[in-house]
Amino acid sequence: MRLTRVQNGAVKHRQLLAAGLSRSAIRARLRRGRLAWLFPGVYAAGDPRLMPLVRQSGALLSVGPRAALSHRTAAAVWGLARDDPEAIHVTVTRANPRPRSGVRIHRLTRLSEADVTTHANLRLTTPARTLIDFAAQADSSELYSAFAEARAKRLINDQALRAALARAPKNHSGAAIVRAMLSASDTYDRSKAERMMRRLCRQAELPQPRVNVHLHGFLVDFLWPDRRLIVEVDGYGTHGTRRAFEADRRRDQVHVAAGYVVIRITWQQLQHESLAVLARVAQALARRAA
User: Fold this and answer.
1) Dihedral of the CA atoms 191, 192, 197, 200 (nearest 10)?
2) CATH 3.40.960.10 in the chain, residues?
3) Topology of 190-289 in CATH?
C-alpha cells in the first residue's frame, strides 16, 4: 500500500476503511500481526520494531494534520541527539488534542510555517527551531553536541538561528539560552575542538583521547578510558536553566560513582586558554596513572 510507505508504515483506521477494508478485516489483520496498534485509531502496517520512524509518523497522524514533531524527537530525527524513549514530542497550534500515552504535546498559540519543514516524510520543526526548543530540555553537553552535529551537517548557520529566535516567543527559555550562546560566540564547533585537543596532546606527548564516546548512557566529549578521565566542554549560555544545571550534575555523579574523574572546561577556555587546559589535563592524567 503506497500510503503506508509515504507515512513510514503508519496508517489511520479511517484510511483503511477508505481503502476498502471492513472493520472485521482490520480486526483480523490485527490478530494475525499484519497490523499493530500504535495510538488510538492509528496502526503500524507490520512489526513496528522493523520500522524506525513508524511511531513518529503514527503520533502525527494521531494528533492531527497541523502537528509537527519537535523538541528532542525532532532533534533525534535530524540526527542531533538521542531520542526520548518515553514519549514522542509533538507541537500543535490552535488545537487541544486529547492526551494520549506515549506522546508529549506542546501547545503554542502560533508556530510560523518558516519554522516547519518536511524530512523523511515527517512534518517537523526546522533544525534551527528544533535546537531552540531542545535547549530548554537538554543538559549543556547534549546541547553543545547537538550544535556541533548540526554545524557539521550544515543544517544551521547563525543567520537561520537568529531568524528563528526572532520568531520564537519572548519568554521561551530555550531561546534565551541560544541567544546567550550566540552573543558569546559560544556555539560549540566539535570538529575544531577535537583538532585542538588532539594537537595539544600531541605537542605535550600525552595520550590521545577517544572523542564523542557513549559512556553510561551519555555522550562524553573526550575520554581516556585507561585513566578513567573525562573532559567535558561546556558553554556559558547552556547553563541558563536549572534543568541543564541539574542534568549536568546528575551525569557527573553517574561517571564519578563508576570511578571516573570529570573535568569541565569551557569552549572559550579551550580556544583562548589552551595551555592552562593542557596543564590541568596533563596533571589529571599523571595522577590517574600513578
Assistant:
1) 140
2) 190-289
3) Endonuclease; Chain A (3.40.960)
User: DSSP E strands: which ranges in the chain?
Assistant: 10-12, 36-39, 42-44, 68-69, 88-93, 103-108, 116-119, 122-125, 210-215, 218-224, 229-234, 261-266
- Angle between helix axes 173-183 and 158-167 (nearest 10 degrees) is 150
* Cβ(234)–Cβ(184) below 8 Å: no
Rg of the chain in Å (alpha carbons): 22
Q: Which of 21-25, 226-230, 263-267 has the lowest mean pLDDT?
A: 263-267
Residue type (1 letter), 127: P
Which are the contacts of 42, defined by CB distance < 8 A and separation ≥ 6? 10, 11, 12, 13, 58, 61, 62
Buried-state track 150-182, b at ≥16 Cβ within 10 A, e below 16: bbeeebbeeebbebbbeebeeebbbbbbbbbbe
pLDDT of 243 reads 63
CB 6 within 8 A of CB 120: no
Give me the DSSP letters along 2-55: HHHHHTTTEEEHHHHHHTT--HHHHHHHHHHTSSEEEETTEEESS-GGG-TTHH
Express each pLDDT in 21-47 by its tens digit.
999 999 999 999 999 999 999 999 999
Condensed to tens digits (0 to 9), the pLDDT of residues 69-80 reads 999 999 999 999
